Amino acid sequence: MDLRKTEITASSNSRIKFEIVHGHFTTSHSHINRYIDMNGIKNNFRTAKETAKQLASEIYSSVSVDTIICLESTRMVGAFLAEELADGARGLSYGNNISCITPEVVNDQILLRDNLQKLVRDRHVLLLVSSVSSGKSVGQAIECLNYYGGVLVGVCAIFSAVSEVHGVKVNSVFSADDIPAYSSYNPAHCPMCAAGQKIDAIVNSFGYSQTH
Fold first, then answer.
1. Closest CA to 68 of 159, 164, 171, 166
2. Range of the domain at 70
3. How many structural domains comprise the chain?
């Protein structure tokens, strides 16, 4: 089955863009009608660097960051973000030796081995994810961060359909306003399911796998 795709460009920077795929998709927590393909942003170093600059401009003057937790394959963006915060604009993180870590995720729970916990405990931590639809995954990540004694200073996402999670502002390059008719539903109350529309693909941060 061929799925229709549309390219979306960030209003803040024409060099940042991704494709959205139209259909009926299931994630681990919700059903969505648009899948956002961020392969280029997360894996192309020029686009990743531009994305990091945009995110840094939102937070460099407001928080000091010691560690960036990079989830959902955002390690390259995270490394450039650390560079922007520590060596770029003279914000509160200027000069910090910022750590970028990608923890294990087991059953939606962040797992930090003993040798990594020292990079989080009592440190100012920035959480970086690729996308936020319902906010549930980010909420779980925040709870895990609290368990390990980290001090959350912000949440960054390439795309976010919500403006905050657990009272914490989500800084993002793209919002739901940038994606025409983007919708996220509780699986139990999905109107596409109610209308008998079959699920086109199972999606996560790595990509999508069509079901038929």
1. 171
2. 5-210
3. 1
**What is the Cα–Cα distance from 56 to 47, expressed in whole angstroms?**
14
Biggest CA-to-CA distance, the chain: 56
Helices H, strands E: what count in the chain? 6, 14
120/116 Cα distance (integer angstroms):
7
Q: The whole model's pTM is what?
A: 0.87
The three state secondary structure string of 12-34 is CEEEEEEEEEEEEEECCCCEEEE
Q: CATH code at 158?
A: 3.40.50.2020
| 92 has a pLDDT exceeding 90 | no
Place of tokens 């200027």: 94
Burial class (CB in 10 A: 0-12, 13-18, 19+), 139: middle
**105 neighbors 161 (Cβ within 8 angstroms):** no
pLDDT, one tens digit per residue, over 154-204 is: 999 999 988 999 888 999 999 988 988 889 899 999 999 999 999 999 998
For the cut 80, the answer to whether the pLDDT of residue 23 exceeds it is yes
Q: How confident is the model at residue 2 (pLDDT cuts 50, 70, 90)?
A: low
How many whole angstroms separate alpha carbon 133 and alpha carbon 190?
A: 14
- Give the C-alpha separation, 65 to 28, whole Å: 30
